[in-house]
TrEMBL record:
<dbReference type="GO" id="GO:0045271">
    <property type="term" value="C:respiratory chain complex I"/>
</dbReference>
<dbReference type="InterPro" id="IPR039205">
    <property type="entry name" value="NDUFA11"/>
</dbReference>
<keyword id="KW-0830">Ubiquinone</keyword>
<keyword id="KW-0496">Mitochondrion</keyword>
<keyword id="KW-0999">Mitochondrion inner membrane</keyword>
<keyword id="KW-0812">Transmembrane</keyword>
<keyword id="KW-1133">Transmembrane helix</keyword>
<dbReference type="GO" id="GO:0005743">
    <property type="term" value="C:mitochondrial inner membrane"/>
</dbReference>
<dbReference type="GO" id="GO:0006120">
    <property type="term" value="P:mitochondrial electron transport, NADH to ubiquinone"/>
</dbReference>
<keyword id="KW-0472">Membrane</keyword>
<protein>
    <submittedName>
        <fullName>NADH-ubiquinone oxidoreductase 21.3 kDa subunit</fullName>
    </submittedName>
</protein>
Length: 194
């Protein structure tokens, strides 16, 4: 075991599984209610439980299986990495495949969910992208990147040229000379850019 902040702290797998089961069971009840309202034949309000109730059961077991397996694997391995969500996804996907009742669907859904959950955790567990260091303030990081990527005006002028919003020191004099040379017109000495 590592020392300091890298030390693993055990998780209560049963409590987390119960919480996840309640959350996903509620989502399953909502989806079951939607399925019940979309059927052609009216099954009444109890159709949520009798006709499409298996959706509630599958969602409840999936959430509990995922969270319990993820936390139990983390406790057994004493590591909190992306293998734990992959193992949880394997069991949750297998539960989803059990509804179909074939071995290929159990294995296929399990493997698919394991890959998706493991990859999601490995890439930072956020849809906004991977955050490398959670201790660094995001505003400060962006300010550093802006300062770090600034290019001197001389290099910008050398690459892009003058004009079009790029006005280095002495631009007005050089512009005045070019206009005089090309068109024979004297431009007033008033500075238009600073």
């Amino acid at each position: 075991m590592a020392s300091g902040d890298d030390q693993y702290h055990p998780k209560d797998a049963l409590k987390e599984a119960a919480t996840a089961s309640m959350i996903t069971g509620s989502a399953g009840a909502f989806i079951s209610a939607v399925q019940n309202t979309l059927t052609k034949r009216n099954h009444g309000p109890w159709g949520v439980f009798t006709r499409t109730g298996s959706t509630i059961v599958v969602f409840t077991i999936m959430g509990g299986a995922y969270e319990f397996t993820k936390n139990a694997a983390a406790n057994l391995r004493e590591k909190d990495d992306s293998l734990n969500p992959a193992l949880g996804g394997l069991f949750a996907g297998a539960v989803m495949g059990l509804k179909r009742g074939t071995t290929p669907s159990v294995l296929g859904f399990g493997a698919l969910t394991a890959v998706v959950m493991g990859t999601y955790h490995y890439t930072g567990a956020a849809l906004t992208g991977y955050k490398k260091d959670k201790e660094i303030d995001e505003f400060e990081r962006k300010q550093f990147l802006r300062k770090n990527r600034r290019v001197p005006i001389e290099q910008t002028v050398a690459e892009l040229g003058e004009g079009r919003g790029i006005y280095p020191p002495g631009y007005d004099e050089r512009r005045k000379e070019r206009i005089k040379e090309n068109y024979g017109i004297d431009v007033p000495a008033k500075s238009t850019h600073s």
